[in-house]
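Reopening this one. Same input as before:
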Amino acid sequence: MKKKEDGEERKEKVEIRALLSKQKVTTEASGEAKELYEQSRYGTLLEDGKVQLSLIEAYYLMEKKRMHVNDARGKKVLPDNFMKKAEKVDKDFWIKYCVYKDMRNRGYIVKTALKFGADFRVYDRGVKPGEDHARWIIYPVHEGEHLTWHEFAAKNRVAHSTKKRLLVGIVDDEGDVTYYEIRWMRP
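Same output, byte for byte:
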């Protein structure tokens, strides 16, 4: 849709329709969904033109009013209900979401990093997956959570062995995130 404003035409953002399954959200096959993928690398583009999103990506797009999600019965899923469903799948959903949202709002592309043994991988601004490698892997943790030295060393070793920098995103009770970058050093 185009809207005239001050003599100029500009394109309005259209809410993309999507369907919630247990652990994923799949968009309709539309130009808007494909454009969202191609511009900002949300989700994975499927052969049928649909985009498959993680729960975190879908929730972020819902909050940004770019997507509305229906359940299997065709009923619209409200953001609060979506959050409850997501927390049943992943008890740390909110902590991970705070870090994801903060990084996306800062202009970074954030993707899952399960194959690296982390929660997320993050690309420098302006870099899309496939064009270059991710710069960081991120582990979101709540400020009250404890890590042993062995867990900490394991996370650092994974980052080092994958040639990425390690970020630990510490989330406080208000959802604010503080980042610490950890690197191996040779004195």
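So the earlier flakiness isn't reproducible anymore. For the record, The chain has a mean pLDDT of 89.
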